[in-house]
Amino acid sequence: MTANEYLYDVLASQALTDDSDEIKALQKHRADVEKLLRDEFKDSALTIRYAGSKAKGTMNRESYDLDIISYSASGDTTIGETLQDIYDNTKKALAKKYLVEQKGSALRLKSCDPENLGVDFHIDVVPGRFTDDTKTDAYLYQSTGDKKRLKTNLDVHLEHVRESGLIDPIRLAKLWKVRNGLPIRTFVLELIVIKTLKDKKETGISEQMEHFWKELRDNSANLSVEDPANPSGNDLSKELDDNLKAQLASAARRTLKQIDESGWEVVYGEPEKKEKAEKVQFLRQAASVAVAPARPWLP
Amino acid sequence: MSHMWQREDPAFYEREKVAVETAYPNLHFVEDGDIVCVRGTFPVISEGQVIDRYSVELQLARDHPVGLPVVREVGGRLPRHADRHINAHDGSACALLPDERWRVWPKGAPLVDFLKGPLHGFFLAQSLVEAGQPWPWGQWAHGAKGVFQFYREILKTTDLHVMITFLEYITAKKPKGHWACACRSGKPLRKCHFVLVSSLREKIARKDALRSLQALKAAGDSAIEMTEAKPTPAT
C-alpha cells in the first residue's frame, strides 16, 4: 500500500455519513437545541444554522464538534440589547437543559445528567446578531480577551474552506491535532493548512502533509493567519502565540521523524474498521492478559 | 518549597520523556510553567492493535516520580461520576488506590510503566464499562470503604480496630519489637507480624498510609459496616 492509499484509508475510516449513528445523534441534538432556543425566544426570528465542520465537510469520526449559529436579525433586541446580553441570555436558556461552558464566542454544551455529568456533546452554540438585513456579516460577543465584539461572516468562512480544494489535508491535520493533543483552534489550523498548501493543491496527499509539517517545523516563527471574513478587524495573532508555535513545530518535527524512521502508520495508526461486538471481544482479550492492572478507586 | 524535578535532574527528565514518546508516538511532554504535563492520545491496545483511544492529560507531580500523576480524560468522553472513578469537581481520574501503588507501579519504576500498567488498565476498563461490560478486575468502593477493602485483603482481617493498629505501626516512626502485635494475638510484634509490618512500611508510602489511617478513623463505627462491603469481584 502506498502512503497516499494509506492516508485515503485513514480518511475513509474517519468519514461520517449522513446515516451514521453519530450524525443522527447530532441531528437530534441540533433539533433539541433549536427547539429550546425557539421556544425560549418566541418573539425573535432567529437564524439557526449548522456552521463548523458539519457545514465545511471536514468532520472526522474520532473527534467532531457540531457548531450551530443562532443569530438575531439586525436591530432585533428581543433576546438582548447588547451582544453580551444576547450571549448571556442564550446561555441562560441553554442552561435549562445543558451544562453550558463559555468558550470564546461559543457556548459549549455538556451533559448535566448526574449519571453522565460533564460528558461533552461536542456542540457549540454561537449566538450573535447580523449587522444588517443582508444577513451575511454578523457581530459576536467574545467572552475572553480585551476585544468584546467580533465581526464575522459564516458564509465567507465556509466558502474559504469548502472552496480551498484542501478538504482532505484539512481533515488529516485535524486528526493529527487531536491525536497529539495540540491546543490549537480548529479554525486557525484550517487557515494554516490552506495557507501552507495553497501552491500544493495538485500534489499527492502524503506530499501535502509532509509539506505542511515541514512548514510548521521550519517556519513556525513566521507563521501567521488572517480571518478571511475580517482580515483587519479580527487579530488572530493571539490564537497563534509563540508557545503554541513551538508546540506545533515540535509535534511536526516528531511526526516527520516518525514517518522517516517507521513509516506513516505510526502517525495515524491502523485505520479502524472494528464493529462494536468485535471491539468488546478485543477489549476482553486485552483485559485477560493485562500487565499490572489496578482496581480504580475514588477518595 | 516548590520542587521542579525536571530542573533538578534534567537527565532523568530526558529519560522519562524519550521512553514515553518512543512507546506512545501521540503523547508529548509539555512544560506548563513549572509543571510537566503529558498530553495527547492514549491508545488502548490488544495484541499490538489499537482498540480505542482517549484524549488525555497527565499532570506529573511536582515531586515526580514520588507523587502519582494527576490523570484527566480531556475529550469529554467519560462522565464525571464517582461510579466511573472520575472526580466531579475537577475531572481527575482515580486509576488506583495510592496504597496499592507498589503492586502496579513500584517506587523507582519509570513513568512509561505507569502508562503501560495501571493507566492502560484504567482506560481499557473504561472502554469495557462504556460498552456495558463490568469492570474487568473489579473496583474498590469509594472513600474509606475502598481503603477498608484494600487493607482487608492485605492484612487478612475484617476487624477495623486491628486494621487501624496495623496502620499505626506502618506509619510509626520506628515500630518496636516489644509492642503488642497489631493482630491482638498477645505476642510481641517481633514474634508475630513484624515482617509483615516491615514489608508494608517498605511498600506503602507513609503519606498514603497516613491518609488511609485518618480515613478509617474518621469513618469510625460506620466503618464496621464495611466488613460487609466487598470489592466488586473481577469477571
Architecture overview:
- The complex is a heterodimer of chains A (299) and B (235).
- Chain A contains 11 helices and 7 strands.
- By secondary structure, chain A is an alpha+beta fold.
- In chain A, strands 1, 2, 3, 4, 5, 6 and 7 form a 7-stranded mixed β-sheet that branches.
- Chain B is an alpha+beta fold.
- In chain B, a hairpin with a 2-residue loop joins strand 1 and strand 2.
- The interface between A and B is large, with 46 and 68 residues.
Helical content of chain B (DSSP H or I, runs of 4+): 25-40%
Distance between the termini of chain A: 50 Å
Q: What percent strand of chain B?
A: 5-15%
List segments of chain B where confidence is low: pLDDT < 50 over at least 5 consecutive residues. Answer: none
**Biggest sheet record of chain A:** 7 strands, mixed
Q: Shape of chain A, please?
A: globular
List the helices and strands and how they pair.
The complex is a heterodimer of chains A (299) and B (235).
Chain A: H1 3-13, H2 21-40, E1 47-51, H3 52-56, E2 66-72, H4 83-94, E3 99-103, E4 106-110, E5 120-130, E6 137-141, E7 149-153, H5 154-162, H6 167-179, H7 186-196, H8 205-219, H9 242-262, H10 265-268, H11 276-288
Parallel strand pairs in A: 2-5
Antiparallel strand pairs in A: 1-2, 3-4, 4-5, 5-6, 6-7
Chain B: H1 5-8, H2 10-23, E1 27-32, E2 35-46, E3 49-59, E4 70-73, E5 92-93, H3 101-104, H4 111-130, H5 143-155, H6 160-171, H7 194-203, H8 206-219
Antiparallel strand pairs in B: 1-2, 2-3, 3-4, 4-5
Helix pairs in contact in B: 5-8, 6-7, 6-8
Features:
heterodimer; A: 299 residues; alpha+beta; 7-stranded mixed beta sheet; 11 helices; 7 strands; 14% strand; globular; B: 235 residues; 5-stranded antiparallel beta sheet; 8 helices
Summarize the structure.
The complex is a heterodimer of chains A (299) and B (235). By secondary structure, chain A is α+β, with helices and mostly antiparallel strands.
